[in-house]
Amino acid sequence: MLKVFLVEDETIVRENLRDHIMWQQYGYQFAGEASDGEMALPLIRRLKPDVLITDIKMPFMDGLALSAIVRQEFPQMKIIIISGYNDFEYARQAIQAGVEQYLLKPITRSSLQKALQEIKEKIEQQRVQEEYLEKFKEDMQMYEQFSRRNFFEKVFEGQLSVQEIYEEAQKLSLEMDAAGYNLAMVSLRENRNMEEPSQESRLLAAKREELIRYFQRYPEFLVFRWNINTYGILMKGEEEQMEELKDRCRENIIRICSGQDTEIKWYCAIGEPVERLSLLPQVYSKVNHMMSCRFLKPGQHILTMESNNLEHHGKEESSIGMVDIAKIDPEIIKNFLIHGQEEEVEDFVDGYLESQKEALKSKIFRDYLMLSIRFTTISFVKNLGYSQDDLLENTYTDKMKVFSLNMEDMRFYMQELIYRALELSNQALESQSKKLIKKAMGYIEENYAKETISLNEVAGAVEVSANYFSTVFRQETEMTFTEYVTQKRMEKAKQLLRQTERQSGDIATEVGFKDPHYFSFVFKKTQGCTPREYRSGMRA
User: Fold this and answer.
1) Which end of the chain is more exposed for a tag (fewer CB within 10 A), N or C?
2) Across 43-56, average pLDDT
3) C-alpha Rg value of the chain to the nearest Å
């Protein structure tokens, strides 16, 4: 019900309108009254009515002055001016003040009823349109996230020239012009080795949402999804701001993510600022190198180039006494195989071997380490359903002697084993993903006509987390869940428009839209014409 506020200096007129108009019957609630604009303004600010009815000529503050202030502070509020002056100048000023209706005294019940009805219809139409726009924006958010991720991937891999970066950024409404740039990557996942996707914890989802919300508030940060567990934060600003932005970024990531070590694992790698967009691939390369070291330093949350420089002590001679047992734990390799990315392999292997540089001078230790790595990767692929031959056959690694390798051979041996294991893992995941997506598409096919169908619902139906399902669905179909469902609905709607004489409202209901107006809104947004225009065009 809409709220209405009345301002009238003539007591008899005010009481007559207040007491003899059946406000509720017209869809209104009488919210309050005042005898002049000065008395009315604080009440209007507090009550925030939908409609203001005010006399034009009053002491202290007249209706025109009050209307001008209200229009500035509450642009959505509708105003009805009532006046005993049949004068064009007053009407002109009222129109300039943005009033909806101008009624002359004496006010009849029918004239006010008509004005109230017209305003009510206008407010309802505006609210429906606002709801449509809001819903459509929400529907398109996931698509925008995907487009943003794809854009930054091209930027950091050096696939775009500076001119192309600006052109693509403009399409995505991203402001990239700055004197300095830097990059941070944040990894957040549950504190357990998940080889099978499952429902993620509420804490993890809440932390991700808080992280995104904070950095989205400030134009100097551009936050984007990088992969299932990782978000990127591009910092940009004046050259003298970059250190302060780096500190703010680090401090707020620590604030949001810390204190939950027992439930989630988190890591952050922060680069060093550069002055050119063309240097961002170099920043990303260093940040990616730092992130790969999270497997070697699970207790260190903030990863920097300085923290990853390993100190070396002691003599140059070989010594098994230099072994750091914690850094050769097979779980480090297994953890990387589960959570690492192919682009991190070389940096991970370099860091892993560098951490035992002195001990690796010992032949016995080198042989032991290679056997440990070999057995760990074989065990990993067997758990995926592959055999030892699947891992080793037709590789240079299989032809090498495991024993008595020098440092360079060890590096190559370890890289090839891990690359091959990740390749098999990706094949298994791809097969699993295809089965998952096939099952999901079957569910969507049966349920897309339900207005309430959602990503969470479908993820639950295929028994994976919404976060995992969203990423896999996008990778497999090259579109977001919302895009896919909308496309499905529009295809069915066009078929019904072509082949039947059914009304647009009936078709809207059949393809999952409870509101036929919103169906028309989405149809025009996605197809470039209204359902009626589409049907007419097909039959022209």
Assistant:
1) C
2) 90
3) 33
The answer to whether 235 and 221 have CB atoms below 8 angstroms apart is yes
Q: What is the pLDDT of residue 155?
A: 92
Residue located via tokens 């509020």: 77
Return the structure tokens found at 107.
């006010």
Distance CA 419, CA 442 (A): 34
Q: Which of 285, 308, 331 is the last residue of a domain?
A: 308
Structural domain containing residue 359? 320-427
What CA dihedral angle connects 473, 478, 482 and 487, to 10 degrees?
A: -120
Beta bridge partners, 34, equal: 7
Q: Which of 369, 393, 427 is the last residue of a domain?
A: 427
Task: Assign 425 to helix, strand or coil.
Answer: helix
348 and 406 fall within a common domain: yes
| Same domain? 354 vs 467 | no
Burial class (CB in 10 A: 0-12, 13-18, 19+), 19: exposed
Give buried/exposed letters for 185-217 (b at 16+ CB in 10 A, else e).
bbbbbbeeeeeebeebbeebeebbeebbebbee
Q: What is the pLDDT of residues 267-310, one digit of tens each?
A: 899 999 999 999 999 999 889 888 887 877 777 888 876 655 54
pLDDT digits (tens, 9 = 90+) for 497-530: 988 888 888 998 889 888 888 888 888 888 888 8
Percent of the chain as helix, strand, coil, to the nearest 5: 60, 10, 30
Give backbone dihedrals phi and psi of 221, rounded to 5 degrees, phi first.
-120, 135
Domain presence at residue 173: no
Which of 535, 530, 537 has the alpha carbon at shortest distance from 497? Answer: 535
Does 389 fall in a domain?
yes
For residue 13, what is the domain's CATH number?
3.40.50.2300
Angle at 174 between CA 172 and CA 176, to 5 degrees: 135
C-alpha closest to that of 359 among 320, 408, 317, 398: 320
